[in-house]
Design goal:
The chain has 2 domains: about 55-135, Immunoglobulin-like, CATH 2.60.40; about 145-400, no CATH class. Helix content is about 60%, strand content about 15%. It has 12 helices and 9 strands. Helix 5 runs antiparallel to helix 11 (about 345-370), helix 7 (about 250-280) packs parallel to helix 9 and helix 7 packs antiparallel against helix 11 (about 345-370). The protein is globular and about 75 Å long.
Length: about 400
Amino acid sequence: MTPKQAVPGTVSKSRSWAFAIIPFVLLAGLLAVIVWSRPADRVLGDNVPPVERLTFQRVTLEPGAIVATVLNDGPDDISIAQIQVDDAFWTFTADRGQELKHLGRTTLRIPYPWVEGDAHVVRVLTSTGTAFDHEIPVAVATPTASSKFLAVFTLIGLYVGVLPVAIGLLWYPFLSRLSSRAMDFLLAVTIGLLLFLLVDGAEEGFEAAQALPGSFQGGVLFVMVAGAAFLVLEWVGETMKKRRGTAAGGTGWVLALLIAVGIGLHNFGEGLAIGSAFALGEATLGVLLIVGFALHNTTEGLAIVAPLARERQQVGMADLIKLGLIGGAPTIVGAWLGGLVYSPVWSVLFLAIGVGAIAQVTRQIARQVGRDAERRAFTTTPVLAGLLAGFAVMYVTGMLVG
């Protein structure tokens, strides 16, 4: 018998695993050598001062006390030694100790008789004498979870998100009777509205990302999450289209639902902004945001129903209510979280998700306009006028917020 010959190009499973593991073993060995050899100490010596970066994550005011959550954003350990409030030293307690490793977090409770309406400065001093300051512009007691608090912020969310979007949805009977050229104009208005929200959300997201500790890499986090949201919503949209089919009305409903989801995520970020403004005692800013967002969001209802009107789809009141709640109700949840447990990381995450969702929806609508209208749809007069009108409307109403 002739010996069994191995098939060319094949490798046993055990050898395949060995080839996969060897690079990881070598990499681990290389990292161990780097840590053991301490190249930084050889270059700079042993007397290198530590790099200290301490960031304030959240500062709240309770009756007779200031509570500050801090994070060690530097590569070296930090030891919190003393705390000053308004240039006077005060006792304090730390729930997780005063020694913080990289990305270590602790909550400092400072018994201090703060004065409502006054400004206060909290200074944290480390064992090396490095000072980190946080200013409280206007001292106001931080809201606490209660039935009254939740009721008030629910009402604010209704004023800002749910009711304005619902008012915009009432245009549907009128829109469904427009001509095809008028509908091209209307869809272009929708694209202009969403493009404004896209730019506005991206600007807010990058501003929030800059406020994050450097270790969180806020800009990268924002871009990656936005990209992930775009891809996920793209997959969801294609799945929904396949299930509903491309019969009359199917595509329009899917597109309207996706627009409502994207706008809802954006409105969640608006709720965070309103809630955090009141939590920080900036009542004037909070009221301004409520008025501005309420007017701003009325046009969002128009964007939601535009694809339905283009396909002349019969939509019941229950469907319109569903779309309105998807687009507006997240404002309520955002206001709750912004007023109670606002976190800059959450703000970046949800703004990024909203931007990715709006970008995907804008692409879907633009693709529909390009497919259903003339070959050069975006050079026609109705479409160009609609794009400019949509952006102009959002810009003018957005001036009330800024």
